[in-house]
Amino acid sequence: MPLILPLLLAVVLFCVGVYGVLARRNAITMLMSFELMLNAVNLNLVAFDAWHLDGLATGQTMAVFVITIAAAEIGLGLAIILLLFRGHGHVDADSARDLVEAPAVEEAR
C-alpha cells in the first residue's frame, strides 16, 4: 500500500479534530477532538514505521506511549468535566473561563 493513503487519512482526522476544538464549546466534544488528533498522530507513527522497515518498531512503540498518555489525559479531563458539571450544571468551555477567582482587593481604610 502506498504511504500517501494513511497520511491523507491522518490529515483528514487531524483537520476534523482541529475543527472540533476550535468550533465547539462543549468540553466533551473538545476532548473527543483531542483524541481524534492523537489518533491521527498514531496513524502517522505506525505508517512511517511500516514504510521505513528498520526492524526496531520505533513508530509502534511511540504509538503505544501516545495511547498511554491519551488515556491519562482523558481520565483527568473527564474528572474535571464531571466536577464542573456537578458544581455548575453545564460543561460549556466558555463559561468555565469565568470561574477563575478574581484577585483579592484590599479594602481602603
From TrEMBL:
Location(s) in or outside the cell: Cell membrane; Membrane
Catalytic activity: a quinone + NADH + 5 H(+)(in) = a quinol + NAD(+) + 4 H(+)(out)
EC assignment: 7.1.1.-
InterPro entries assigned to the protein according to its UniProt record, in alphabetical order: NADH_UbQ_OxRdtase_chain4L/K, NUOK/Mnh_C1-like
Any Pfam family: Oxidored_q2
Primary localization: membrane
Segments traversing the membrane: 62-85
Topology versus the membrane: Multi-pass membrane protein
Key words, A-Z: Cell membrane, Membrane, NAD, Oxidoreductase, Quinone, Translocase, Transmembrane, Transmembrane helix, Transport
A GO MF term: NADH dehydrogenase (quinone) (non-electrogenic) activity
Family note: Belongs to the complex I subunit 4L family.
PANTHER family according to UniProt: NADH-UBIQUINONE OXIDOREDUCTASE CHAIN 4L (PTHR11434:SF16), NADH-UBIQUINONE OXIDOREDUCTASE SUBUNIT ND4L (PTHR11434)
Biological function: NDH-1 shuttles electrons from NADH, via FMN and iron-sulfur (Fe-S) centers, to quinones in the respiratory chain. The immediate electron acceptor for the enzyme in this species is believed to be a menaquinone. Couples the redox reaction to proton translocation (for every two electrons transferred, four hydrogen ions are translocated across the cytoplasmic membrane), and thus conserves the redox energy in a proton gradient.
Subunit structure: NDH-1 is composed of 14 different subunits. Subunits NuoA, H, J, K, L, M, N constitute the membrane sector of the complex.
Protein's UniProt name: NADH-quinone oxidoreductase subunit K
Organism name: Kribbella deserti
